Amino acid sequence: MTIKSMTEYETISYKTFLDIFSPLPEIGEILEESESVEEAREKLFEFCKELEWEIRMGRIKFDNEVDRWLALKAIEVFLNIISKDNERLAGFSTLEYLWKAYKGDEEALKEIREGFIEEFRHLFLAMSGKADYSLGFLGKRLLEEGVKFIDFSKIKGREAGIARSNFLDKVYEIMREYISRYPSGLDKRIILKRKKNREILEEFFGITDEEWFNYKWQFKNVLRGLKGVKILRELREVTNFKISDEDLEIIEKAVKNGIPFGLTPYYLHLFDFENPYVEDLAVRRQVIPPEWYVEKMIEHKEDRNIAFDFMGEHDTSPIDLVTRRYVTIAIIKPYESCPQICVYCQRNWMVQDFDAKAFPGWEKVEKALDWFAEHDSMIEILITGGDPFSLSDKAIEKMLNRIAEMNHVVGVRFGTRTIVTAPMRITDELAELLGSFEKSLMISTHVESCYEITPEVAEAVKKLRTNNIYIYNQHVFHRYVSRRFENVALRIALKKVGIIPYYTFYPKGKMEHKDYLVPIARLAQEVKEEARLLPGSFRTDEPIFNVPRMGKNHLRAWQDRELIAIKPNGSRVYLMHPWEKGIYPTKLYTYEDVPIKEYLDSLKEIGENIEEYKTIWYYY
Ligand SMILES: *Cc1c(COP(=O)(O)O)cnc(C)c1O
Fold it and tell me: How does the cofactor bind to this protein, according to its record?
């Protein structure tokens, strides 16, 4: 499951490079005849303006109005990329690479990767109106299935209504085929598999159902440290549970180097014991760290809390345990670990092992609560961590009682993943305690795939909802949950158990998480080509980019970001607009994305047909 490092790709041939200009040979000619980058810049600007005007005057014919719109967008992107001012912001010149490479400069050609070539191949196709984007991937599938597109200007009334309805049923057939690739934990087959796994584990641990369904037993028996590795080894020896030597060694290396690893027995039973990394790909990747991650974390063992504090939390904490980035809400972190550790955790620089030391002590917690009491701007308090449901009911009650006295606080939100990692934590007592809180109380949880949604999750959610507590989901759209319609399958499963999709996060570009990254373009594509096929009440999540220090911002479109450069390795460079835009002056944030080509290669490795993703290049 390792991703090829970029240096392993071969140097691009000059001919391959020249080929990309075939939709717009004029661009190649300008690069050829220009004596300098500056000359090329001026001439390309003139050319683009003329091309734009020809389009706007209707002198260029397009197969479809959408392809015409895309051509205008692509011209804008190209102008952005060749703009001198954007070069200043990006810190380098994309145009210089294009110009040098066109002149056959070997150094430039050596540096340029396939990802760069592909970006420009598609950009030039789009600018010339030949992208065929309007058909999308679904349109192509429909044509393959022999479905005829109906011209609704030719038929009317009931006839049109029936034709459209029949056509939409065909669309659903394709959608259903994709969704069915992702088994849900509510499927009978999976429920039976898990029942068997539970029995195997109960026998292995020498316990009864009663202990299994008791969260205290689950918490006490979290697989962690060297003991956890030993248990996984033993389990492999005496049961049908499969795990590779490689995985065991990586986990062992992680725990020996103080990198937190934690896995609840409950979550372990979600694994497919006999077929690793097929149906349970996302579940295993949730907790088993890839080698690269472990290496990077070891490299930065000493300065981890600086190197990996990607969100700049050190600079947004007015007092210990509190993080404030917004006007009316701040975070309090009363427990700095979780029963289960997510490999891609953005707080990986601070999470500790799951034990008593992760509780900072009442003195600190009370001081942090005092801070909330003193700030009447705080209308909501987000209690997270770590996982606050690691704390006892008593501790939770104590915090809530204190917050109940703060008149300005309207609501409390808990950020917890126990609903997924140890759903038995949601006892009747806890649900009633939370339900008895007189202010608004909600929970945001973190379900990554429909495979994690089980009858146990459904029961935990039901207990909370009968106590008037709403549960929202924060989904991290990482590489192993980002396939076609995978997020759609998740949204449907969430809806079945009563969890409301809230955020779909772009997995931030933290280098130790390289194997989990997904380009922004894939999120944008998912929203448009997949989520859009669901009813509005199912697609309530917003795509979000977390701007370091500043806070979360939407990833909707050009009102939130601008593509300003393409690195020779194919990474897009964006200017991200923070949420404060239009509220007070603030700096934009320059961000380098993961190359689309690298992402597509990794999808191919997990068996995807990347032809089905090819419109991704047209999401800027
Ligand atoms: C995410 C986050 C919140 C909550 O933001 P919402 O948009 O209300 O979900 C609050 N404070 C901090 C520091 C956060 O990172």
Answer: Binds 1 [4Fe-4S] cluster. The cluster is coordinated with 3 cysteines and an exchangeable S-adenosyl-L-methionine.
